[in-house]
Amino acid sequence: MLFTFVCAGWEGTAHDTRVFVNAVLSNRTDQISLLMPSVGKYYVVDAGYPNIPGFLAPFRGQRYHARDFIGRHQPRGKEELFNMRHSSVRNVIERSIGVLEAENDELFEEGERENEQEFDDTEATSSGSNEEHITFDMSQTAEMAHVREEIATSLWINYRQN
């Protein structure tokens, strides 16, 4: 439940992609833009977002939602398993947003207190951090597709062995 970026103030009718592009490509001095995640970490995005480095989208055309896997409906391949896990992570994100909007949530406040000390310890070093603002070329989608494929394969091997 640690937020790295919040882009508030958009109308509910704004398309997700428009908000995303604005957050990623914003170079206005009066607006903070989204920072690139560290190597090996990704922002979890839905299938409507571009499959670019740093952003992990699910496989299209495969079962996705947790309810699709209830009972005997186990994943039939690595893409479905990846999507099932991706959906689980997105559920945590959605739940975190709900907690953020709640007035008094004990678990959120506890996590906030735990992170305050960690943030205070890293604040001094983060001003000169090596984080980069996001720039991308749509030709990089193959690179992220390869990363997603590797993650899916690893998940599937582990799943089949257990």
Automatic annotation (TrEMBL):
Sequence ranges assigned to domain DDE Tnp4 in this UniProt record: 2-100
Keywords: Hydrolase, Metal-binding, Nuclease, Nucleus
Compartment annotation: Nucleus
Main subcellular location: nucleus
A GO term from the CC aspect: nucleus
Annotated stretches, region: Disordered: 108-132
Requisite cofactors: a divalent metal cation
GO MF terms, alphabetically ordered: hydrolase activity; metal ion binding; nuclease activity
Bias type Acidic residues, positions: 108-123
Parts forming coiled coils: none
InterPro entries recorded: HARBI1-like, HARBI1_dom
PANTHER family: OS11G0202600 PROTEIN (PTHR22930:SF280), PTHR22930
Family the entry assigns: Belongs to the HARBI1 family.
Protein name (Swiss-Prot/TrEMBL): DDE Tnp4 domain-containing protein
